[in-house]
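in:
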């Protein structure tokens, strides 16, 4: 008997090669899904790692700020030199036994902040120290 080449015979001859190719493609697809797919894929993990590094840097920055503000609060409460500097810079106060300082505000802003004053007085005394009587 001679074998004739029929379409059925040709399809079975190509079958093992196509099956191998299909199995190989499925294996590659499974491997790609294992690495990239799912809720926590490789790219998502890389983004999370970068975000974690950024958050650690932010936490370190905030800790340094808290430390410096705690130090500053302690200095303000306990250091007379710092208290005097703040009183001088922020409130315009002066230190001394014979000095008197007045700050005069414009008439428009004095009316709103000086409600208990007579209408003619517009200055605000910021630091007054009683001076000793003059000796002749």
């Amino acid at each position: 008997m001679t074998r004739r080449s029929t379409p059925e015979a040709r399809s079975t001859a190509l079958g093992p090669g196509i099956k191998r190719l299909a199995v190989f493609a499925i294996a590659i697809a499974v491997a790609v899904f294992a690495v990239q797919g799912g809720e926590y894929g490789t790219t998502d993990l890389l983004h999370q790692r970068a975000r974690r590094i950024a958050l650690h840097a932010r936490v370190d920055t905030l800790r340094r700020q808290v430390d410096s503000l705690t130090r500053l609060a302690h200095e303000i409460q306990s250091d007379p030199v710092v208290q005097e500097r703040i009183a001088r810079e922020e409130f315009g106060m002066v230190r001394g036994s014979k000095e008197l300082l007045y700050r005069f505000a414009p008439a428009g802003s004095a009316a709103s902040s000086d409600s208990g004053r007579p209408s003619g007085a517009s200055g605000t005394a910021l630091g007054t120290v009683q001076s000793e009587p003059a000796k002749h």
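note: Residues 98 and 132 are 8 Å apart (CA to CA).
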